[in-house]
Write a structure and sequence with these properties.
This protein is α+β, with helices and mostly antiparallel strands.
Length: 109
């Protein structure tokens, strides 16, 4: 490995051959059960999304509410939260020919 770069809870490792491997991890001193507290207190898109899902208390959150946060790549933020151990369910339905999506936080794995 040539160098390591830490950004926003992820560790990006650059191999000698130029390929990049991304590993999402928490600090060794921060248990997963406390991840929500630290993340929600930060002003990131993932934190804003997590706060919205927590405030819904397990109810389905429609995609327009998530987009109202200004999160363009909401699926990437949901993936980040899932990799941190949060269990986020999603469902889609066709209503009058249009696809509608909802998300909800059901716990931590």
């Amino acid at each position: 490995m040539n160098d390591t770069d830490n950004r926003a809870g992820s560790q990006i490792l650059r191999a000698a051959d130029g390929e990049t491997a991304v590993q999402f991890c928490l600090s060794e001193n921060a248990p997963l059960k406390n991840a929500a507290v630290g993340l929600v207190q930060r002003k990131t898109q993932s934190a804003a999304l997590l706060r919205l899902l927590i405030d819904a208390h397990g109810s389905w959150v429609p995609l327009p509410e998530i987009l109202a946060l200004g999160i363009a790549q909401y699926n990437a933020r949901i993936l980040e939260l899932r990799r941190l151990g949060f269990v986020i369910e999603n469902k889609t339905e066709r209503i009058n020919g249009a696809r509608r999506s909802w998300f909800r936080l059901t716990g931590r794995g």
